[in-house]
Amino acid sequence: MRRTQIRSVLAGLTLGVGVSVALTATALAQAKIQIGCTATSDCASAMVAVDEGIFRKHGLDVEMTPIAINSNIPAAILSNSIQVGGPTSTVFLQAVDGGLDLVAIAGASVMSPTSNTAIAAFVRNGITIKEPKDFIGKKVGAPGLNAFLHVLFVKWLVEKGVDPKSVNFVEVTFPTMADIIKSGGVDAVLTAEPFVTRMINAGIGSVGVRYGAELGRTDPIIFYAASRDWAEKNAAIVKKFREAIAEAAIIVNIDREKASASIAKFTKQPLELVKATPPNQSEPNLKPQNLGWWIEVMSSQKMLQSKLDTTKLVLN
C-alpha cells in the first residue's frame, strides 16, 4: 500500500513538473508584444519580422502599432500600451534625462549616405529658400519637437550660423504634411523619403535643403527601447526579440522587395513609391558609445540637464 502511494505521489510530481514546464514554454511561445513606431522605414526590421513570420518562429506574438508623433513613444511605453517602441535617439535621451527609466534593447536604423540624402526640408510653393538664413522667421513643421529630424536640422542651422530661435517650429505628423503644406499652414516641413517624392509629385513645393546629406553622419536614428523594469523581468523574451530583429535586419538590407512590401503595409504608403526609395540601413547591434555624438549635440542645444552614462542606456 505504501509502495502504491509512493508511486502515486511520484506520478503526481512528474505530472506537475511536466505541466509547469509546458505552461512556461507556452507562455514564452505566446509572449505578446506591441511595438510602437512612426510611419517611416526606420522600424523596417520589426515590420519584416512580423510579415515574414520571424517573430513567430522565435516564439513571440508581435503586433506593430502606429504612433503619430515620435515624442509620444516614451509615454506609450511607460503606460504599457506598447511594450517596445522605436524612439529616435534624441527622444529617447531626453526622456531618460527627464527621469523615465527606459533602456535600449536593440538597434533599428542608422544614418548612412543613402538615408542622409533622403532627409530634407521641404518648402511649399511661394516660399524661396536659397540659403540657411532664409529660414529665419519661417514656420517649419517637424514630426516631433526635439525628435531626430528636428534636432538634426537645428544642428545644421547652428553650423550655418543661424540662430534656431529665429525659426518657428511646430509639430506636424508625417501623414498630414502634404495637406498642411498645400494649405499654407506651414512654410516648410522636416521630412524624408518617401514623403519628399510624394509631395514633389503632387506639385505642392520643392526641396529647400537636404540637410542630412550636408551633415553626413553615421549615428543611430531609431532603436528599439523598453522600460527597464519590463526588459529585466523579460530577459528571455528580449533575447528572442534581439535574435528576430537581427535576422530581419539582413532582409531589410538586401531584399528590397520584401522590405518595401512591409514598409508600405505599415506606413500606408503606395508600394511603388516606397520601392523607389531604399529603406534606412538596418543595424541591430547598438553599443553605448554609439549614443555619444547625440549626447554631445543635445547638450550643446541645452536639451539635456544631466550627464548621462551611456553604459546604463543600453541593456547588456
Characterise the protein shown here.
This protein has 316 residues and is α/β, with parallel strands linked by helices. It folds into 2 domains: 29-111 and 219-312, 3-Layer(aba) Sandwich (D-Maltodextrin-Binding Protein, domain 2); 114-215, D-Maltodextrin-Binding Protein, domain 2 (3-Layer(aba) Sandwich), CATH 3.40.190.10. The protein has 15 helices and 11 strands. The chain has helices at residues 2-29, 44-51, 54-57, 73-78, 89-97, 113-118, 148-159, 177-183, 195-201, 211-215, 228-233, 235-254, 256-267, 271-275, 292-300, and strands at 31-37, 60-66, 84-85, 102-110, 119-124, 139-142, 168-171, 188-192, 205-209, 220-227, 281-282. It has a 5-stranded mixed beta sheet with strand order 7-6-8-5-9, sandwiched between helices.
Summarize the topology.
Layout: H1 2-29, E1 31-37, H2 44-51, H3 54-57, E2 60-66, H4 73-78, E3 84-85, H5 89-97, E4 102-110, H6 113-118, E5 119-124, E6 139-142, H7 148-159, E7 168-171, H8 177-183, E8 188-192, H9 195-201, E9 205-209, H10 211-215, E10 220-227, H11 228-233, H12 235-254, H13 256-267, H14 271-275, E11 281-282, H15 292-300
Parallel strand pairs: 1-2, 1-3, 6-7, 6-8
Antiparallel strand pairs: 4-10, 4-11, 5-8, 5-9
Helix pairs in contact: 2-12, 2-13, 12-13
